[in-house]
Amino acid sequence: MTAFIVSHDELCTLESNTSNDAKIRHCAEYTDSHVHTIDVGYGEHSSSAKLLFSCTVRPSEWDRLIAVNDERIVHFYGTHPWYYREHDQKRLVTILQNDPKACVGEIGLDAKHGVLGEQMPVFLEQLALCEKYGRPANIHMVGCENEMLRVLRKTNVTAILHSFSGPESYIKPLTDCGCYFSISPRILRKSEKNIKSLLSVIPDDRLLLETDAPNTDIGIEEFLDKISVILDVETFDLKRIALRNAMYVFS
Ligand SMILES: [Zn+2]
Questions:
Q1: Residue 181 Cα, ligand 1 centroid: separation in angstroms?
Q2: From the CA of 139, how far away is ligand 1's center (Å)?
Q3: How far is the CA of 213 from the centre of ligand 1 (A)?
Q4: pTM: predicted TM-score of the whole model, two decimal places
Q5: How remote is the CA of residue 105 from the centroid of ligand 1, in Å?
């Protein structure tokens, strides 16, 4: 377990002690499980979260993330399916060996952008490193649920499915593979009814929240507020769930 804000044990102790409510409130900070902190434009949309999963999409970005020294930021190094031709597996191995806290992402498959068969070998190579070094993966999955499920069933990787928006029928089998479902403001394009329905199927202990900043119009606070209203839950409870789950990713 990597300790970021508060250790997992500490959080459990706090959660089991209801008289410590004020303390819990204090420790439940915003978490953002998919951002691109080194992107041009991130400054304008910078997330106010206290725990951020910062992703890269191509090897030319990795050095800039290595240089980031901010304890709120968890580093994810990877080659996105759009840029699979640029992938540098040897260098990714070196990064993971040099930094025991480094994770892998943004990797994945995108049926709407290129050919899955061409993206697949680079995705599998990177997933194999997640498995070998025991690191979580931040995954881009567009139009390829079936293929993703087939791949993830054969691995033992903790996968965060970034900007997940369905289909609902895949939630159960993907949950059984150990996946986390990270929802982004893009989900707000759906009707309230559809959002409620989708979120009712995602298990509480697998839900994560992200902005994908700078690719977003709203910040994590506003997003969390909107989702709390739609689900009719306390903003604080949602914050706490997102924080707890973000920490479980590393347990
Ligand atoms: Zn992204």
A1: 14
A2: 9
A3: 8
A4: 0.90
A5: 9
pLDDT per residue as tens, the chain (251 positions): 233 334 445 554 444 444 445 544 555 789 999 999 999 888 888 888 989 999 999 999 999 999 999 999 999 999 999 999 999 999 999 999 999 999 999 999 999 999 999 999 999 999 999 999 999 999 999 999 999 999 999 999 999 999 999 999 999 999 999 999 999 999 999 999 999 999 999 999 999 999 999 999 899 999 999 999 999 999 999 999 999 999 999 87
**CA of 214 relative to ligand 1 center, distance in Å:** 9
- What are the structural domains, with CATH classification, of the chain? 31-248 (3.20.20.140)
**H or E stretch at 182:** strand 180-183
Instruction: Give Cα separations from 130 to 59, 106, 124, 152, 167 (angstroms).
Output: 17, 12, 10, 12, 25
| Closest among 81, 180, 94 to 137, alpha carbons compared | 180
